[in-house]
Design brief:
Helix content is 38%, strand content 17%. The protein has 213 residues and is an alpha/beta fold.
Length: 213
């Protein structure tokens, strides 16, 4: 209930404040586990992404956000779960795989952290690993304009037009029932990043649909 209330409030605010638009929203499967894999130019990305889609979004949040009882309560109600940064957090990975196998949708950022200058960074292998473990499709996503709304370290958002472009789901069935290694994870990661880059370079603005209140 709290998620739905906050989602509705944010849709109204974002529709007015940043004029949020989407392209390819229909590419998100309507049911079953799905990973949304966006670029990560802003601290606000997960909030804006969760507002743009109709399904409830589950997301990883840095461990520091869960240290105080009130903020932990809010983030838990928003389907967030903690992740320890700077190392492989096996508990967070297990949680992500479990959430996906239960048929939910989560966002995972292949870059692993927010970009300081809005440009793509070298990706990590975590998104590919979770996708193969959970045997779920990955929808590449381009977040455009969120850096201008709230860049890394900024405390308050600024009004700015935002476009979110969703690519077609990527399936990696050929690896699901095979033992895989670091090289396979690199191949999967490269495919995901290539699609994110393609979406970022796309100029199909005429297909943009603005979020209605």
């Amino acid at each position: 209930m709290l998620y739905s209330i906050i989602h509705s409030i944010l849709r109204v605010i974002l529709a007015v404040y940043i004029r949020l638009g989407t392209v390819g929203l229909e590419n998100i499967p309507k049911q079953g586990g799905v990973i949304l894999a966006p670029n990560h130019p802003s601290d606000s990305d997960s909030f804006i992404l969760g507002t743009a889609i109709r399904r409830q979004l589950h997301t990883m949040g840095k461990e520091e956000l869960f240290r105080k009882r009130f903020t932990e309560f809010i983030f838990r109600k928003l389907n967030a779960f903690p992740v320890k940064r700077g190392r492989v957090d096996r508990e967070a990975i297990r949680t992500a795989v479990s959430v996906l196998k239960e048929g939910h949708i989560i966002d995972m950022y292949p870059e692993g952290t927010v970009s300081k200058d809005s440009f793509l960074q070298e990706p990590k292998l975590g998104t590919a690993f979770v996708a193969l473990q959970a045997k779920t499709p990955v929808v590449p996503v381009a977040m455009i304009g969120t850096f201008n709304v709230m860049s890394k370290g900024q405390k308050f958002p600024r009004p700015h037009k935002v476009i979110i472009r969703f690519g077609k789901p990527l399936y990696f069935d050929e690896y699901y029932d095979k033992s895989y290694n670091k090289e396979i994870l690199k191949i999967v990661t490269k495919q995901i990043m290539s699609e994110i880059k393609r979406l970022l370079n796309s100029n199909a603005l005429e297909e943009t649909h603005y979020v209605s209140t």
